[in-house]
Amino acid sequence: MKIKALTLLAFVLVATCALLLAQETKSTASVSIVVIDQSGAVIRHAQIRLSPSLTMAPLNLETGVDGESLVDLSPGNYDLSVTMAGFKGGNQHIQVPDTTPQTIRVTLKVDGCPPGCLVVYPHFDGQTWWNHIKVLADDKLEGRDTGSRGERAAQAYAIEQLKSAGAEPAGVNGFYQPVKFVSRQIVEKDCNLSLIRDGKRETLTLGEDAIIGTRVMPAPEVEAPLVFAGYGLKVPEKNYDDFAGVDIRGKIIVILAGSPSEIPGALASHYQTAAERWKVLRAAGAVGIVSLINPASMDIPWSRIALNRAHPTMDLDYPEFNETEGAKLAVTVNPASAEKFFAGSGHTFEEIAALGKDRKPLPHFPLAVSLAAKTKVEVTNIESANLVAKLPGSDPALKDEYVVLSAHLDHIGIGEPINGDRIYNGAMDNGSGSALTLDMAGSFKKNPEKLRRSILLVLVTGEEKGLLGSKYFAAHPTVAPKSIVADVNVDMFLPIVPLKLLTALGLDDSDLGDRAREIARSLGVRVQPDPEPLRNLFVRSDQYNFIRHGVPSVIMSVAPEPGSPEVKTFKDWLTQRYHAPSDDVDQPVDLATAAKYEEIVRALLINIANNEHRPQWKPDSFFRRYAEPVGTGQ
Ligand SMILES: [Zn+2]
After folding, report:
1. Of the residues 208, 230, 542, 593, which has the maximum number of CB atoms within 10 A of its CB?
2. CA 148 to CA 312: how far, in whole Å?
3. d(CA 352, CA 265)
């Protein structure tokens, strides 16, 4: 009885399903969508958006490895568009008629993609990289602020990916290398800042006229005369000294950010770091520093700089890293308010900015005002970690040497809303480099390469707080310090135009530059040195901490063709998206460029891992000094 009843039930179910299926198939059509480039080549992994004309939500589809996407559609009108990052989409209208089942083939042609632009590189397709970014820059990760819940989630994801790629843990605690921070947040309502002129107080509006920095722990109260000291640099190698003959003892110095053209970019960048600058200022007896932004090198507008001021700053919580001991005040001034500092001095900010724009020599003179500050800072302790993973080498003599691939996983978290969005997702900065690191591990699993030296994948924390995680790692590496042969750092490489040109920082400092240039050339890509030394990029990424420990390093970024409309594309990106909530996954990127860039990085890593010789500093590189054994350096 039981069996019979069940059989009957099953029969009824099957019949019903068949009937439903028949009705279903009768009213839908199987649509095959193929996306091609201008030359007719099929595009794999293209994103397609399908909008029904009815009130349904649009459907997001993707073409597979065969370049085809299959979808069943009920009768109606649809708009198809390609949303493949980095390309102008082809649009097409299709009609699915209310007739018997059929297969419709739709071909979408993508514009703005010249023939050959979608060359598939052997190890990368751009898509797996982008998929990592989609996770890391998701709103759920809340912008991956150092020590935050979002950063921990990003780290958990990274570890899961590294594990599945077969990378071995190489931190202190599994993949983790814990790092302790102290966080400082300005309590602005209990702060004030004013200029004192002839005994009279002129209040400066915090946020509008100036910002009190907390990278230097400010003293509760400071009052001191101001002296303008040009670029505020002392560069012994070039016999350059902004403080010669200027008495700055007990004073707050005012400087224009930047450097004179006679100082080469890397050297200028080095002496502009807080540590180097403060060494000189402390020796000369200064008590604080006021920085005037050089309008010629402003990456982001003042309004956005000011918005970020309530954001805590961080420092490593270890005495050995206190680089600004004795500094009592650090203030940054809005260029639009800078004239207030110069009134009565016989000089104007306009004159100073005009000279600074062309990196011309600047005068030095006392200002007619003193600066008085009262500050309150809230201090908390934060913990985070670097992640370290290893792809072991196989050569008995060389496997204990390491090629570091580094990228920072942290970003700036949640901040002041811009256009209603508070999450600073950091898709390019530096979801892009973190994703590349994970993708690289995956590529070595998929296409193993016999590596002689080991590769060390280092995802650092605290970069946005001042390169802190890498500073800690470089000082306390989880492998023998002398065993690190090179650092290839990847930070915001901006694949937003087709890849024809790369900027490499450190290009002429070691033979890593020559190797990178050669590899890039073999893929049809030119390499140029830093075209914008004013932006100080060389000390603004994690490679700098490796350099300071003697490790030859290089960092490459996609660059615009000089004089082409691409220059504006980059400029607009920096103005609109850099350190803004719009650096998210809704921005256009060029997946083919990302893939090509990854291919270059992979080839460089293999070259360093397998080359007979460790990378060497060039004899005339300034940074070579850090590689000299103690006592023989300059
Ligand atoms: Zn950043």
Report:
1. 542
2. 12
3. 20
- Euclidean distance between CA atoms 320 and 553, whole angstroms: 24
User: What residue spans of 285-367 are helical by DSSP H?
Assistant: 302-307, 339-342, 349-357
CA of 622 to the centre of ligand 1 (A): 26
Collect all residues with Cβ–Cβ distance below 8 Å to 231 and sequence separation of at least 6: 242, 255, 256, 257, 258, 259, 260, 356, 362
Residues with CB under 5 A from ligand 1 (ion): 429
What is residue 10's predicted lDDT score, i.e. its pLDDT?
43
For residue 176, give the H/E element and its range.
strand 176-186
Q: Cα–Cα distance between 29 and 309 in angstroms, integer?
A: 56
Beta bridge partners of 456: 390, 404
354 CA to centre of ligand 1 in angstroms: 28
Q: Would you place residue 213 in the very low, low, confident or very high pLDDT band (cuts 50, 70, 90)?
A: very high
One DSSP character per residue, 497-564 reads: S-SSEEEEETTTTBHHHHHHHHHHHHTT-EEE--S-GGG-GGGSSTHHHHHTTT--EEEEEE-PPTTS
Contact status, residue 237 vs residue 622, Cβ threshold 8 Å: yes
Here the tokens at position 154 are 């990003």
CA 433 – ligand 1 centroid, Å: 11
* Residue 321: C-alpha distances to residues 17, 191, 316, 504, 631 (Å): 70, 27, 7, 28, 21
Instruction: Find, among 432, 447, 390, the residue nearest to 163 by Cα.
Output: 390
What end-to-end distance do the CA atoms of the chain give, in Å?
Answer: 97
The half-sphere exposure of 201 on its side-chain side, counting CA atoms within 13 A, is 8
Summarised one tens digit per residue, pLDDT across range 363-392 is 999 999 999 999 999 999 999 999 999 999
* pLDDT at 69 > cutoff 80: yes
- pTM for the complete prediction? 0.73
Q: What are the beta bridge partners of residue 486?
A: 403
Q: How far is the CA of 452 from the centre of ligand 1 (A)?
A: 34
DSSP letter assigned to residue 629: P
Helix (H, G, I), strand (E, B) or coil at 207: coil
Contact 384, 317 (CB under 8 A): no
Q: Measured on CA atoms in the order 599, 601, 603, 606, is the torsion positive or negative? A: negative
Are 387 and 168 contacting, i.e. CB atoms less than 8 angstroms apart?
Answer: no
- The b/e string for 75-98 (b: 16+ C-beta within 10 A; e otherwise) is eeebebbbbbbbbebbeeebebee
Find the 530 Cα to ligand 1 centroid distance in Å: 18
Max CA pair span of the chain: 109
Q: Which residues are CB-contacts of 4 (< 8 A; sequence separation ≥ 6)?
A: none
